[in-house]
Amino acid sequence: MHKKRVVVTGLGIIVSNGTGKKAFSEALFKGISGVKLISLFDTSGFKVKTAGEIKDFRPQDFLGDKGLRTLDRSTKLANSAAKLALEDAGLEITESNTNDTGVAIGTTLGSVNSISEFDKEAMREGAHYVSPALFPNTVINSPASQVSIRFNIRGFNTVISTGFTSSLDAINYGADFIRLGRAKIVLAGGVEELCIQTFLGFYKTGFLAGLKDRDIELSCPFDERRNGIILGEASCILILEELGAAMERKADIYAEVMGFGTAFDPYRVNKYTLRTEALKKSIEQALEKSGLTPDKIDYICSGANSTPDGDLVETLCIKEVFAGKAREIPVSSIKSMIGECFSASGACQAAAGICAIEKQMIPPTINYRKKDGRCDLDYVTSGARSSGIDNVLVSAFGPSGCNSSLVISGFRS
Amino acid sequence: MSKRIVITGLGVVSSIGIGRDAFWNALVGGESGITEIVSFDTSAFPNHFGGEVKNFNPYEFVTKRRFSRIGRASCFAISGAKLALEDAGINPGVYEKDRIGVCVGTTMGETQILEKINEDWVKRGVDAIDADSIPRYPCNVLSSNVAIELKLKGPNYVIPCACAAGNYAVGYACDLIRSGEADIMLAGGTDAFSRIAFIGFNRLFAVAPRKCQPFDKNRKGMMVAEGCGMVILESYDSAIKRRAPVYAEVLGYGLSCDAHHMTAPFSEGIKEAIQKALKESGIAPQQVDYFNAHGTGTPANDREECLAIKKVFGEYSRKLAVSSIKSMLGHTMGAASAIETVACCLAIKNDIIPPTINYETPDPECDIDCVPNVARKQKLNVVLNSSSAFGGNNACLVLKKPS
Question: Contact A132/B203, CB-based, under 8 Å?
Answer without folding.
Answer: yes
